[in-house]
Design a protein that fits this description.
Layout (H helix, E strand, L loop, with lengths): L2 E6 L7 H14 L4 E5 L24 E3 L13 H12 L7 H18 L1 E7 L7 H17 L6 E4 L29 E5 L2 H10 L6 E3 L15 H4 L7 E6 L9 H8 L5 E6 L6 H13 L6 E5 L13 H7 L2 E4 L10 H9 L3 E4 L4 H4 L7 E2 L9 H12 L1 H29 L10 E7 L6 H9 L9 E7 L6 H11 L4 E6 L5 H16 L10 E5 L4 E2 L3 H12 L3 E7 L9 H21 L7 E5 H6 L7 E4 L2 E4 L3 H11 L4 E10 L3 H12 L4 E2 L2 E2 L14 H4 L4 H26 L7 H7 L1 H17 L7 H4 L1 H22 L22 H9 L6 H6 L6
Parallel strand pairs: 1-2, 1-4, 2-3, 4-5, 5-6, 6-7, 8-9, 8-11, 9-10, 11-12, 12-13, 14-15, 14-17, 15-16, 19-23
Antiparallel strand pairs: 17-20, 18-23, 19-20, 21-22, 24-25
Helix pairs in contact: 3-4, 18-23, 21-23, 23-27, 24-25, 25-27, 27-28
GO molecular function: glycosyltransferase activity
InterPro entries: Glyco_trans_1, Glyco_trans_2-like, Glycosyltransf_2, Nucleotide-diphossugar_trans
Protein name: Glycosyltransferase
Length: about 850
C-alpha cells in the first residue's frame, strides 16, 4: 500500500501544526494511503526531545508515528549542531552544512524507499530551525521524485514563516541563512492566508507554485466523555473556560487568570498543556493563581490528546464538549494562525481572543469578544462582562456559533477542494475515459443525469469515471453528488470546484484535472479520453461505449456524438418539428463527411491532442461593462484541434438527447433571428424554468408558416458556414477526398479550394484567436458560394432544404462585380456585429 510521509518541524505531538496535518492527511487516508508522521524530534532542537524515542504520544489510530532511520549515526549531527546553526542564522551567518545535509538526504531517501512513500507532506519546513535538514529534504525530494516519476508529490505548508512567528528569531529580511523556496516540479507550497502569501512572494518573487490553504474547521469525530468535569474536580454546574496551548511565556496564559478574577465564582478555567515544557512559566502561573485567589477555580490539566484521538485518554475533544467558551489570549506578535480558534469553531463552541497581529486577516467576519491588547494588556471589566454574557445568554451563544460555523464550513470546503484539485486521487488502472460534467444549481436534475451516466451499456464501470465540476452552486448540488458517490462506489465520482463562473471555465477545470491525474499512470503511451457531458441533457445507454469504440477505431483526436430531440416534446407543433428535423438531417450528412465539431453536450478528446493544443481556451468579451467568458469554448476548441492538423470523427451511434427547454426558451429569438445574443456578444443565461408549468402558451404552441420560415432560415444560416464551409477551410485536404468531391461536385470543390487559399493568404497574420480567425472567412465563403452550397444540400439531403435565405438589405445597392469585395467588409465589420447577427450566434436547433 502507498504511504504518505509527513514531517513536522514542530517537534511536539500536541500542536496546531500536527492537528492541521491530521486534518489534511485524513483526506488522503480516505484514498487508501497509509499515513506515517515524523514529529520532528530529530529536526527541531529547542523542544528538547532530540533522538528521544516515541512514548505515549497520542495521535489517531490510523496515523503511524515514524522517523528517518539512522540520523543518530551521522557524525556531527545532534542537538548542539542544530542549535549552533540556528544561532548562526540569527547572526545572518550562513552555516557550513553541506556535508551533513548530504548524509541526511541519503537517509531520508532510503527511509522513503523502505516504506514505499508516494506522497510527502512538510509542515513548517521553510523556517530555518534546521538548515541542514531543510537542505537535505530538498535534495531528497528532487532525487526521489525524479527516480520514481512522481510528479508533484510534495505538499509543503508553512504555518508561521519568519515574519509571523517570533520575529527576529531567524535573522533579518531577506533571511540569507534560510534555504530558498524553489519552483520544483515536485513541490506545491501553501500559505495560511493572503497576507502570508503576499509576504512570501515579497521574499521569494520567483515562486509560482504557491496557494492559500486556510483553516479547515473539521467537526469533531466523536462525542466527549461525560466524566471529564468530575475527573478533574470541576462542579457539574460550573461554567468552563477552555485554554489548550503550550505553557510558555509567549502564549500569555496570565491574561486568562486575570480574566477569571473578573468573572463570577461559578466560572472555572481549564489549562491543557505540558507543564514540564517551561517549568519557570508554569511556576509563575501557579503563583499568580494563588495571588489572585483562584486556586480552586483553575485546573492545570496537563497534556490532552488531540481532538481527533480515539484512545481512552482524555482529549481536547472532551474538553471542548464541556467548555462554555474557548480562550486564546495570546501575544500580539506571536501567533498568526490560532489553531484553538478553529477547533472551537469546528466543535460549535464560542471563543474569545486577543487581537493579535493577523487575527483579522485569519478570521475575517467571525464573531467573538476581542481584547485589544495594544490598548489594554490585561482584560478589562467591560471585556469580562462581554465574555460572561456570551457564556450565559443561550440565544446570543447560538447565534454566534451558527454564524461562525457557517463561515467555517465554507472555508473547510474551499480548502478541501483546493487539495483535491492540486493533489488529485490516483486513477484506476482500467480507466480509459474521464467524463467531465460542469454543474451549476442542478439539484433538480442531477440524480437523473448521474444515473444515466452510471447505467451505461457496453462498457465496464471501472473503465470510466465522472468528474463533476461545481461552478458555485447555491443549492444541494454538491451534497447530492457526494451522496450519489457514496451510494454507488462502483463508479468513481470526483467532485471538484471551479470558482470562476462560466461553463467554459468549469469544463476546462474538469478536463485539466482529469488529464493531470491520468498522467500519473504507468503507461504514458496509451490513449486516454476526456469526455464532455452536460447536466442539461440526457445520454443514451450506449453513448459512452459507441463514442469510445469510434475513437479507438479511427484514432481521431476528437469524437463527436449525434444529438437529437425527443419527438414527444413537440407533439402538436409540426412546423417547429419540421424546421428542427431539417437542420438535424443536414448535420447528419455533413458530420458523416467532415466529422463535425465538438459540442459541450457530448464529445471526447484524446488527452495528448488536448494538451498539445493547449487545452480549452477561455476567451472573454465585454457585456454591460464587465468581462465575461465566451460560451463558444467547445467550438473554439474544435477549431484549434482541427486547425492543428488533427482529425475529428463522427460517432452516429453515440447519442445525446437535447433538452427541449433550449428551444422553448429561445424560440421567440430564433424566429426574429437574434438567439442567444447580438452584436458579437453571446452571454450565458439560465434557461431553466422553475417548473414545467411556468412555460408560457407561446413557448409550447406551434409556429405559423411565416415564423417557421424565419426560424428555418436563421437556423440554416448558422449551420451552413460552421458545418459545411468551416471544415474544408480548416482542412483543405478534405476537398481531395472522394466522398467530399461527390458531395460538392468536382468543379465546386476545385473552386472552393482555390478561393480558400486566396482568402487565407489575404488574411494571414491578422488575428489567429480561433473564434475570430475562422469566423470571418467562413462567412465570406458562405456568401460567395451560397447558391451552389444549397444546391448540393438539396441534392444530398432533400429538396425541402430550399434556397439560401435573402441577403441583408445592405447588399441591394452593391454592384455584382464588387460583391466579394463588400462581403469582406461586411463580414469583418466587428464594430457593428452585423454579420454576427445575420448568421446567428451558435447552437440553434
Amino acid at each position: 500500500m502507498a504511504v504518505l510521509w509527513g514531517v513536522s518541524f514542530d517537534a511536539t505531538a500536541m500542536s496546531g501544526v500536527v492537528v492541521e496535518f491530521v486534518k489534511t492527511a485524513e483526506l488522503f487516508a480516505g484514498r487508501g494511503l497509509r499515513i506515517h508522521l515524523d514529529l520532528g524530534y530529530d529536526v527541531k532542537a529547542d523542544k528538547g526531545p532530540f533522538f528521544r524515542p516515541y512514548h505515549g504520544e497520542q495521535v489517531p489510530p490510523w496515523v503511524t508515528l515514524d522517523r528517518v532511520d539512522g540520523l543518530d549515526r551521522i557524525s556531527g549531527y545532534d542537538q548542539d549542531f542544530v542549535t549552533g546553526t540556528l544561532e548562526a542564522v540569527q547572526r545572518d551567518e550562513i552555516p557550513r552544512v553541506g556535508e551533513i545535509a548530504d548524509q541526511i538526504a541519503r537517509q531520508i531517501e532510503q527511509t522513503w524507499e523502505d516504506r514505499g512513500v508516494t506522497m510527502v507532506m512538510v509542515e513548517n519546513g521553510t523556517l530555518p530551525e534546521n538548515v541542514a535538514y531543510t537542505t537535505a529534504l530538498y535534495q531528497a525530494i528532487e532525487r526521489y521524485g525524479a527516480r520514481h516519476a512522481l510528479g508533484r508529490f510534495v505538499f509543503w505548508r508553512d504555518h508561521d514563516m519568519m515574519w509571523q512567528s517570533e520575529p527576529g528569531k531567524y535573522g533579518t529580511f531577506p533571511f540569507p541563512g534560510t534555504p530558498n523556496m524553489r519552483n520544483s516540479p515536485h513541490i506545491h507550497y501553501f500559505a495560511l492566508h493572503e497576507e502570508a502569501r503576499r509576504r512570501t512572494l515579497e521574499w521569494q518573487p520567483h515562486l509560482r507554485n504557491l496557494d492559500v490553504l486556510p483553516n479547515t474547521f473539521r467537526p469533531p469525530q466523536r462525542s466527549g466523555r461525560k466524566d471529564f468535569k468530575r475527573h478533574h474536580g470541576i462542579p457539574d454546574d460550573a461554567k468552563l473556560i477552555a485554554r489548550f496551548t503550550r505553557i510558555i511565556p509567549q502564549k500569555r496564559i496570565d491574561r486568562d487568570l486575570h480574566l477569571l478574577r473578573l468573572l463570577p465564582d461559578d466560572v472555572h478555567l481549564f489549562i491543557a498543556g505540558d507543564t514540564g515544557e517551561h517549568p519557570a512559566e508554569t511556576l509563575k502561573l501557579r503563583r499568580l493563581t494563588d495571588e489572585l485567589g483562584l486556586t480552586r477555580r483553575v485546573v492545570f490539566g496537563g497534556t490532552l490528546a488531540q481532538a481527533e484521538s480515539t484512545s481512552a485518554a482524555f482529549s481536547v475533544r472532551d474538553l471542548l464538549a464541556h467548555a462554555d467558551i474557548v480562550s486564546f489570549l495570546t501575544s500580539y506578535d506571536y501567533e498568526s494562525y490560532g489553531n484553538p480558534i478553529s477547533e472551537a469553531v469546528a466543535a460549535g463552541v464560542p471563543y474569545l481572543t486577543s487581537r493579535y497581529a493577523l487575527y483579522d486577516t485569519v478570521y475575517p467576519g467571525f464573531r467573538a469578544p476581542v481584547l485589544d491588547i495594544l490598548t489594554h494588556d490585561l482584560p478589562t471589566e467591560e471585556f469580562a462582562r462581554d465574555v460572561h454574557e456570551l457564556m450565559t445568554d443561550a440565544e446570543r451563544r447560538a447565534e454566534v456559533v451558527a454564524h461562525n460555523q457557517e463561515l467555517g464550513v465554507h472555508s473547510r470546503t474551499a480548502a478541501n477542494d483546493l487539495v483535491e484539485r492540486l493533489f488529485p486521487p490516483a486513477m484506476g488502472a482500467g480507466v480509459k475515459l474521464s467524463v467531465v460534467l460542469p454543474v451549476f444549481n442542478e439539484a433538480a436534475n442531477l440524480d437523473a443525469v448521474l444515473t444515466s451516466l452510471r447505467e451505461q451499456d457496453g462498457i465496464e464501470p471501472d473503465q470510466y469515471e465522472i468528474v463533476l465540476v461545481d461552478n458555485n452552486s447555491t443549492d444541494d448540488t454538491v451534497a447530492i453528488a457526494h451522496r450519489f458517490a457514496a451510494e454507488h462506489p462502483e463508479i468513481a465520482l470526483h467532485v471538484i470546484a471551479e470558482p470562476e463562473q462560466g461553463v467554459a471555465c468549469a469544463r476546462k477545470a474538469g478536463m485539466d484535472f482529469a488529464a493531470q491525474r491520468s498522467r500519473a499512470r504507468q503507461d504514458p503511451g496509451e490513449r486516454f479520453y476526456l469526455v464532455s457531458a452536460d447536466a442539461d441533457c440526457r445520454v443514451d445507454r450506449r453513448w459512452l461505449a459507441e463514442l469510445f469504440a469510434a475513437m479507438e477505431h479511427d484514432k481521431a483526436a476528437i469524437g463527436v456524438c449525434d444529438y437529437y430531440y425527443n419527438a414527444e416534446h413537440f407533439v402538436g407543433r409540426p412546423r417547429l418539428w419540421d424546421a428542427i428535423q431539417r437542420t438535424l438531417r443536414c448535420r447528419a450528412v455533413t458530420f458523416a463527411l467532415f466529422g463535425g465539431f465538438p459540442d459541450g453536450k457530448g464529445f471526447a478528446v484524446e488527452r495528448e491532442a488536448y494538451e498539445r493544443v493547449g487545452g480549452i481556451e477561455i476567451c472573454y468579451q465585454l457585456h454591460n461593462g464587465r468581462f465575461v467568458n465566451h460560451l463558444s469554448d467547445d467550438w473554439d476548441f474544435g477549431i484549434k484541434v482541427r486547425g492543428s492538423g488533427y482529425d475529428i470523427t463522427y460517432a452516429p451511434l453515440s447519442k445525446v438527447e437535447i433538452n427541449p427547454r433550449r428551444v422553448n426558451h429561445a424560440i421567440d429569438e430564433v424566429i426574429t433571428g437574434r438567439a442567444y445574443g447580438s452584436d458579437g456578444i453571446i452571454v450565458m443565461r439560465d434557461i431553466r424554468p422553475q417548473n414545467d408549468e411556468t412555460q408560457t402558451e407561446a413557448q409550447t404552441a406551434d409556429l405559423t408558416e411565416e415564423e417557421a420560415l424565419q426560424a428555418w432560415e436563421f437556423s440554416i444560416k448558422d449551420f451552413t458556414p460552421k458545418n459545411t464551409v468551416l471544415p474544408v477551410l480548416l482542412t483543405p485536404s478534405l476537398l481531395d477526398d472522394d466522398a467530399v468531391i461527390a458531395f460538392f461536385g468536382a468543379d465546386l470543390a476545385e473552386r472552393l479550394g482555390r478561393r480558400i487559399a486566396e482568402i487565407k493568404d489575404e488574411m494571414r497574420v491578422v488575428d489567429f484567436t480561433p473564434i475570430h480567425s475562422y469566423k470571418t472567412p467562413s462567412y465570406r465563403l458562405y456568401l460567395e458560394f451560397r447558391h451552389e452550397l444549397f444546391a448540393r444540400l438539396r441534392a444530398t439531403v432533400g429538396e425541402d432544404i430550399g434556397y439560401p435565405p435573402p441577403l441583408p438589405e445592405c447588399f441591394a445597392d452593391v454592384p455584382e462585380e464588387r460583391f466579394a469585395e463588400f462581403v469582406k467588409y461586411y463580414c469583418e465589420d466587428r464594430e457593428s456585429g452585423e454579420a454576427h447577427n445575420h448568421f446567428g450566434n451558435g447552437g440553434v436547433f
